[in-house]
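Deliverable D5.2: sample structural annotation.
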Amino acid sequence: MSSDRSLNSSLGRHASLGRRGLLAATLALAACESDPTPVVEDSVPPGSQSLQLTSDGRVRPRAGGREGEYRLGANDRLRITVFGQPTLTGEYTLDGNGTLAFPLIGEVKANGMTTNELQRAIVTKLEPDYLVNPSISAEVLTRRPFYVIGEVQKPGNYPYVTDMTALNAVAIAGGFTYRAKTTQFYLKRLDQDGKMVRVVAKPDTLVRPGDTLEVRERYF
């Protein structure tokens, strides 16, 4: 009889511990999902190429997709050449708002522009008050990095790679931890209005410069 009571007591304690563990995991999951950042659908940015992942793991343009150009953003580093004006020619880095500080003309809001659009914006500000018929070229030297956080071996920021998928980004960050949820992630990015949003991403979702890839923990 005493043995039965001890067994029942032991089973009760184990069941209680099991319930507590389940409750803790549920609360942790709820905390993870409490991020107030709004979730939106992924979309092709203006002027970007429409891409698809092929069966052999390569990325190619979709049928009917138009070739796009890189859109500038915060922390991009550029070389701007003003022909015949060595004091204006040089390397420039966009600030945290994607704004270019340029001699003579001050600030140029370059966020979301292509290099061609930026060239035209600078020409418009320089002419005719400072230069007559200026000739300008702009090229991107270093694209803003992307970030990987959560259940990866080496969280941090990394140089952007063209046509990089979420799975490629995880590989660059050293791969998954054993706790990682490996089939679905979040990408945090600024939308066109400068607001932070989250995109539900799969392994083949394309990562953009400046994105933060969040690899979540699996609980069950």
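Annotation notes: The first strand starts at residue 39 and ends at 40. Residues 14-18, 21-32, 46-67 have pLDDT under 50 and may be disordered.
The annotation will be released with the project's public dataset once the embargo ends.
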